[in-house]
Amino acid sequence: MATVICTSPASAQSAKAQYNIPAGPLSEALSRFAQQAGVAISFDAGILKGIQTEGLQGSYAVDEGFSHLLRQTGYAVGRTAAGYVLQVLPSTQHTPAIQIDAVLPAIQVSGSHLENPAGPMHGYVATRANTGTKTNTALIEIPQSISIVTRDQMDAQNVQTVGEALRYTAGVIADSNGPDPRSDNLVIRGLSSNGSESYRDGLRSFAFNNQGGTVMETYGLERIEVMRGPSSILYGQGGAGGIVNYVTKRPTAETLRELQMQLGTYGRKQLAGDFSGKLSEDGRWTYRLTALARESDTFIDYVNDDRSYIAPALTWKPNADTSLTLLADYQMNRSGQGYQALPRIGTLVSNANGQIPTNRFLGEPGFDKHNQERKSIGYLFEHRFNEQLSFRQNARYQEIDTNANYIYMNSLRAGNRTVGRRASSNQEHITNASIDNQLQLNWQHGKVEHTTLFGFDFQNMDNEFTRYLSPNNAVADLNLYNPVYGLPLPALPMTGKQTQHLRQSGVYLQDQIKIDKTWVATLGLRHDSTEQKTNNLLNGSNTRQKDSATTGRVGLVYLAPMGFAPYISYSESFMPVVGTTFGGAQFKPENGKQKEIGLRYQPTASSVSITASIYDLTRQNLTTTDLANPGFRSQRGEVQSKGFELEAKASLARNWDIIASYAYGKVKLTQNNDGTQGNRLGDTPQTTASGWLQYTVTDGGLSGLAIALGVRYVGTRYFNDANTQLLPAYTLSDMAVHYDLARLGSGWKGWNVALNVSNIFDKTYIASCGYTGDACKYGYRRTGAATMTYRW
Questions:
Q1: CATH class of 248-791
Q2: For the domain 5-113, what is the CATH code?
Q3: E strand or H helix that includes residue 520
Q4: Which of 210, 211, 738, 764 could form a disulfide with 754 if both were Cys (CB 3.0 to 4.6 A apart)?
Q5: The whole model's pTM is what?
Q6: Looking at residue 104, what DSSP letter applies?
Q7: Closest among 646, 622, 651 to 634, alpha carbons compared
Q8: Structurally, what CATH architecture does the domain formed by 128-247 represent?
Q9: Which long-range contacts (CB under 8 A, 24 or more apart) does 29-33 make?
Q10: Structure confidence by residue, pLDDT tens digits, 568-595
C-alpha cells in the first residue's frame, strides 16, 4: 500500500504553547505532550519499550513538539482527520511532522499510553476512571454520573481539605458541617451518609460515626472521584447519595521532584515535598515519598490546624504482566475543638446585644483539642495471565487513635448574652482491615465485547470508645460578648465505654457488554453479609445484629457520533442500622434506589467533558423518634431526592481552563411520624451553582502567568426538618494567580509562585444550624496563601 508523504501545511497546529515535560520513557512523554496539547495520538506503546527521551521544555507548536520528542528515534508522527499516528521512518534521520493524505494502516492503541486513572495526568479533564466499574473504563461508557477532581485542579485551587476540593462539583455540598476537623462531611444529592461514603483506593474507610472520622490529606492524593447515587453493587454497604473514592499518589517511572513552601493567613506555615522515580535502571523498582508539615491557626480564636503527614510507596514490576505496589501513610492532626456552634440568636437571628463575632471560642484554652493519629499500610497487586484474564488484589490495614476534648453550649441564658456549657472528653481506637479480590475476563464473540468482573471483598473493623461527659451547665457560663476564660473545670464522670465490631463480606459479578462499539450495557449483582456487635462495658449489656442484602445495577449507554453518549441506569444500595425497636425487633437495613437518565459529551481529540443528568433517588427505612415510646426509635422514615445536575470541564485552545456546575434538587421527607412528612429535608439547598475560569498567558511579556476567578452559590435551605426558618443563600468568590518564574531566565527554571484567596470579599455567612442548644455555625472567612514550588 502506497503512502503519500508531504510536509505539514500551516494550520492551527502551528500555534505555540509552553511545555515542561521531563526526560523519561518516550511513550509516556508522547502521551503527556498530546494531552497537554489537546490532540489525539495513536501508537503501540510496546514498540517504544526501552526508548527514552530528553523531554521537552519551552515554547512549541504541536508538530514541532512531536518532532523534538521523536528526534533520533526512527519515528515520526502523521496527521489524519482522527488525530496523530506514529509512523516508522525509512531512515533514522530527523524528519518533521508529516501530513498523510492517503490511507494509513490501522494502529491499535495499547493500554500504557491511555490515561491512567490511578496515575498522574495533566489538566482538569479526566476521561477514564476505576471507581464507576472497578475496571479501567472510559467515563463516557459508564451509565452513572461521575465527577473527577484532578491533581492539577487541586493544585490550581490550592485545596487543603476534601471539602475545598469538591466545592466546584455538581450535586455535592462541601463543608456541609461548617468548619469541622473531625471528618470530611459531605452531602451528595441532598443526602448525608455520616462518613460512610468514604473510600480510599477502592477500599472503605469508615469509623462508626463516633469522633474518629476520616480526614484525608489532599496533598497525598492523585485525584478524587465522586460517583453519585447508590453503589452497593461494587462497594457493599454505603449511603444512597453516592461514594467518594480518594486515589493515593503512587510511584512513577517518570522522575518527579517537588518542594513546596507556603505562608498564609492566620499564621499558616506549611512545607511539603513529593518525590518519585526509578530505583533500578530497568524500572522494575520505583518509589514515591510524599510528606507535609503544617502549623496554623484558624479564624476561630484558640483553634489551631496543625498536621504532620508522610506517605512512602514502593512498586515492584518484574515484568509487563505483574506489579505490586506497597502503600503506607502516617498522619497526625492536632486541631482545636471541632464543635464551635454558636447560638442561633445572634448568628442567624438578630440579637439585641449585637452579632456574635465569628471568631468567638466557646471552649477553654488548654482543654479543648481534637488530636488524631492515623497509620495505615496496604498493597495493590495485579497479574495478567494473558490478554484476556487478569487478577487484582487490594488490601489495607489501618489504625486511628482519637483524643478529643470539647466544651460546647447547651443553652442560651436569659438576656441572650451568656451561654451555659458542658464538657466532654472522648478517646477512641479503631482498627480496620479490608481486602478486595477481583478477577477480570475480557472476551469477545462477533461484534460483542465483554469485560466480566468477579469479585469478593471482606472488611473487619473494631472500635474501642470511652466518653466522659459533665452534666448540663456544669461548666461556668461564658459571656459571648466579653468572654473570660480560665475558670476551673468540673470533674468529668465516665458516661460511656463500649466496644464495637463490624464484619462484612460480599461477592459480586459485573459484565460490561459493548455491542458493535456503539452500545454499552452494564449489568451487576452483589450479595453482602454483615455482622455488628456492640458491648456496653458500663452496664454489661451487648447487642448483636446480622444483616444480608442483594443489590444490583443495570445501565445502558449509546455511543453516538461526535462524542455524545446518552445513558440510563438503575442502581441500589443498603446500609445496616444497628439497634432494636421498643418491642425488641431488629431494624431493617436502610436501602437506596435510584433511576437516572443522562447525557455525556466528550468529543475525541479534545479536552472537553460535559455531563447532564436527571435522577430520582429514594432512601428508605430511616429511623425516627418513637413518639409512643420516648427514648426509643422506630423505622418509618423515607426521603426522596429528585433533581437535575449539569457539570462541564474544558481546556480550550491550551489557554483557557473552565469548570462550571449547576444542581437543582428537591429533597422531601416522604414518610415520617413527627409531623414533618411532606417537608423539605433540613439543611439541604434546592439550588447550587459554581464556576471557575483560568486563563494562562502563553505569549508576550506576561508569558507563564495564569489568572483564575471562581464563584460559588448555595441557595436557601431550611435549617431543620420542621421547616421553621430559612438559612439565607450566599455567594462566595475565589481567585488564584500563578506565575512560572522560568520566564525570568534559565536560573529560575522549575520555580513557580502562586497566590490563592478563598472568599475574597470576606463574606460572613451561616454554614449550617440545628446543633445542640439551638446553635449554628459560621462558614469559612477569607483565607489566603502564598505558595512557592520548585520542581526539578
A1: mainly beta
A2: 3.55.50.30
A3: strand 519-536
A4: 738
A5: 0.85
A6: P
A7: 622
A8: Beta Complex (2.170)
A9: 29/53, 29/55, 29/56, 29/69, 30/66, 30/69, 30/70, 30/86, 30/113, 31/113, 31/114, 31/115, 32/122, 33/65, 33/66, 33/69
A10: 999 999 888 766 676 767 778 888 999 9
